[in-house]
Amino acid sequence: MILVVPSRSRSRLPLLLVLLLLFAVVGGVSFLGWRQSVAAPTVTLSRPGALGAKSTLPVVVEAVRGGLTRVEVRLVQGERVVALVKQEGALGPRVQLPVTLEGAAREIKEGAATLEVWARDDFWRPLRPSDRALVAAPITVDLTPPRVEILAATRYVSPGGVTLVAFRAPDAARVEVTVGPRAFPSFAWGPPERQARVALVGLPHDLVPGTPLAVTATDEAGNTATRGVPAELKPRPFPRDTITVSETLLQTKVPELLPQRPADQPLIEGFLVINRDQRRQAEEEKRRIGGQTGDAPLWQGAFVQPRNTKVFSNFAEARTYVYQGKTVDTQLHLGFDLASTRQSPVPAANTGKVVFAGPLTIYGNTVVVDHGLGLQTLYAHLSTLDVKVGDSVEKGQPLGRTGTTGLAIGDHLHFEVLVSGVSVTPLEWWDAKWIRDRIARPLQDAGLPAMGGVAAAPAPAADDTPARPARRRAR
To answer: In 3D, which of 135, 190, 138, 141 has the Cα closest to residue 167?
Structure first.
């Protein structure tokens, strides 16, 4: 059988072939064009104003398609080109590089420079892109650490006490005053041209001899300088006591402070949750509140102890809790317990601003007054609150009345002094002579204005440690 192709179909065949060829050409060109149009890797970096000898600049390079095969960061100063970091191989679609000048600092001079980031991916393109810097950011190389000058400091210090440090760090962007791992803020003080700063530092009750007290300054380039603060640590003993956990205490306080306790849980276990977990929560809250402070002192003169009160529990008293003849817990009492008549007025120890007023776990109804520069006072176990957050208070102004809220049986006031959330002995701040010698004198030695209306004494005493109050028990 012979198949005869109509003449009309034969005339369309060349057109169909042309269209197919044209489609292949256009499709191929489009594909190659798309390949060529895929962008080079992207670079993300913070643009620092300056880069120091040990500062780190995070550089992130990401491939738009495929994976990275080469990443290099260079520093260019005139004709000098220094490779800071270089990686090659199958690097994946994303690379993060911590770029530092360390190791290359000898080849670099201080001054203006350009930071270049070069990168290449493995995505095939018809025309291989020429090697070029994907980012060229101007920076300043700064290898000089900031200046730190200690102007004066409290000479004699004790665990659980406070020291004042006056210093200058004019080139610093950030400053920390530290005692071991604890950091304290500093504040500008005195004439602006002096560029002086002061810090009140709370020394923990368990301060170990040899723990460094230092000022550390960091500039914009990340350079740091640290200066130790000279001080003589004088030991201070702290008392111990034993607390008998009675059934009356358990039946009274556990349901009040731990209402969510399972019904079948023994009361003593609930007490331990309160004494441990809620106490820890309160300490964390005190540290948070400590950050809410003014940048100028609000207090005037010595702090006042409420009239007609007796101290019956001391600061940093180590307490052993005994239940049914067995030791069940040990905790620290951070403050003074002051006893007077029931529901006595509680006066503000000094001028300040209320930064907390409300329930605070084991402390019950509590008021915290900020006196500026990190210095605060705490008043706990109150039956009533007569102030609210934001109120300004004068020395002696009633804040509320004593009570038994929180983990307290007898009516009394729990009183604390804190520096940036660190509890310190109130005894020092009740002593006008201590304030003159330990706070006002360093300011005078540094040539800075007095604070709190307290001027330094004419001459320092050889030993001006405040006397300890007679210990009174009222159980």
So the answer is: 190
* 153 and 59 inside one domain: no
pLDDT digits (tens, 9 = 90+) for 345-354: 999 999 999 9
| Token pair belonging to 286 | 């005190």
Is there a single domain that holds both residue 309 and residue 361? yes
Question: Positive or negative CA dihedral for 297, 298, 299, 300?
Answer: positive
Buried-exposed string 203-227: b where 16+ CB fall within 10 A, e elsewhere? bbbebeeebebbbbbbbbbbbbbeb
User: For 308, phi and psi rounded to 5 degrees?
Assistant: 60, 30
* CA dist., res. 465 & res. 136, Å (int): 61
In sequence order, what are the beta bridge partners of 154?
none
Q: Specify whether the CB–CB gap between 363 and 380 falls below 8 A.
A: yes
Beta bridge partners of 337: 313, 414
Whether residue 189 sits in one domain with residue 85: no
Contact between 148 and 229 under an 8 Å Cβ cutoff? The reply is: no
- Expressed in angstroms, the distance from the first to the final Cα of the chain is 126
pLDDT digits (tens, 9 = 90+) for 159-210: 999 999 999 999 999 999 999 999 999 999 999 999 999 999 999 999 999 9
Q: List the CATH number of the domain containing 67.
A: 2.70.50.50
